[in-house]
Known about the structure:
The structure is a homodimer.
Chain A (H helix, E strand, L loop, with lengths): L1 H5 L4 H19 L4 E2 L1 H8 L3 H8 L6 E2 L3 E3 H11 L6 E6 L3 H8 L2 H4 L2 E8 L8 E2 L2 E5 L3 H7 L4 E4 L6 H10 L4 E4 L12 E4 L2 H20 L1
Parallel strand pairs in A: 4-5, 4-8, 5-7, 8-9, 9-10
Antiparallel strand pairs in A: 1-3, 2-3, 6-7
Amino acid sequence: xxxxxxxxxxxxxxxxxxxxxxxxxxxxxxxxxxxxxxxxxxxxxxxxxxxxxxxxxxxxxxxxxxxxxxxxxxxxxxxxxxxxxxxxxxxxxxxxxxxxxxxxxxxxxxxxxxxxxxxxxxxxxxxxxxxxxxxxxxxxxxxxxxxxxxxxxxxxxxxxxxxxxxxxxxxxxxxxxxxxxxxxxxxxxxxxxxxxxxxxxxxxxxxxxxxxxxxxx
Amino acid sequence: xxxxxxxxxxxxxxxxxxxxxxxxxxxxxxxxxxxxxxxxxxxxxxxxxxxxxxxxxxxxxxxxxxxxxxxxxxxxxxxxxxxxxxxxxxxxxxxxxxxxxxxxxxxxxxxxxxxxxxxxxxxxxxxxxxxxxxxxxxxxxxxxxxxxxxxxxxxxxxxxxxxxxxxxxxxxxxxxxxxxxxxxxxxxxxxxxxxxxxxxxxxxxxxxxxxxxxxxx
Lengths: 217, 217
């Protein structure tokens, strides 16, 4: 029952684990077999005590005084994150961002296979993007089941996000990644993540403002 | 010296403040003058004790037993985040994601004005996207100064991210938002944010895996 053990991994740890997987994969490509927590920490931009705490969930892959087996650690993290399998994904909203995701190779590379593209614009329906034909959003409930979609990516304008979400919920979807700049309502058993890159711009702007203020004082 | 006071706002608070600004702007459009912390909390999807804690930085805008002045609170938060002004931004890497950002109205709406688009691909240089002509990346140092770019957005492939960053650093840039799936090296006085939407997909996949495991046990 490995899931039991990983059940309480905190959210912040999850996003760091994702970085570790990325770096471990890079090391694997370079033929690295074993890595120390210090070295992994530096290449991930995380402090060593944090990485040791995070990797405590995967303790059995550590070699005292040496480090971690790159391959085994990577596989263990991937398994714990549910990344040792592929996930069927649908993109709802074929605007600039939706198109970019449909054409972006990184999703497939990471095990997220886009199996459906949806939009309510009659001018977009039927268009082929990234090898997929755009389907009318009103068909989302039936198509979600038919295509066995597990995760929905919302890239609609803000005002159409909830409707898209409702269609997906109707089909019993269990996970949503929302790029639309709008809060969405879902039952508590649905996993929802918001991707709001504007917040990152806000954060950078804020930190520049702070530095400038400090310089002036 | 308002900056002094806001100096220690934690990172997690900043991204919530960004959500509050978004919601307060929505309320303002609807003509709402005063809002209780409970109501604001619900519409932001944050718990009320958290919102009260966050808004303690802006205490003077609260009315005991009534709530917050929508306009004043919004303006105070925006000022603290450095959003009461516009920021000149450059996009480096005109692939699918770069194009999406160049055409995306939300950046400008939020005060981030894209003043330059850069790529090293000779087939892209000179192309017009979102009203901007794509400039050769090697001109980044001079153009960054000329266009008064303050924040660089990196949308290159992973292997070209550091070179793009180096060009920007050469021109003395103070903030970078990195969409490339690569860690980048910068001096400590440069504000860097990573936007990795794959992590959000990881997180959703992980939570679905957890729920399924719980159902099986």
